[in-house]
Amino acid sequence: MISNMQLLCDVGVPGSKMLYVLTDHPRDISDTKEQFKKAMEEVVEMGIDPLKTNFMSVVHALRSISKSTWEKKMDNFLLPVDD
What we know:
Layout: H1 2-11, H2 15-24, H3 26-29, H4 33-45, H5 53-64, H6 67-77
């Protein structure tokens, strides 16, 4: 758990956002370091700002659903809108 907190510090997540994950989604932070790091790296690659609460929300979402479900949701989200 402490190593996952350090990973959050390393990408710039402020303490207040760490408190959010500890109180609202403690299972996320208790993942193995490898699992947690992989999810965080994906969120960073998406360009989501670690200073914002939605960074931790996306980490939670990635940890909560399967990769195939995530990809389906993202495909639907990124569909072009007809003018």
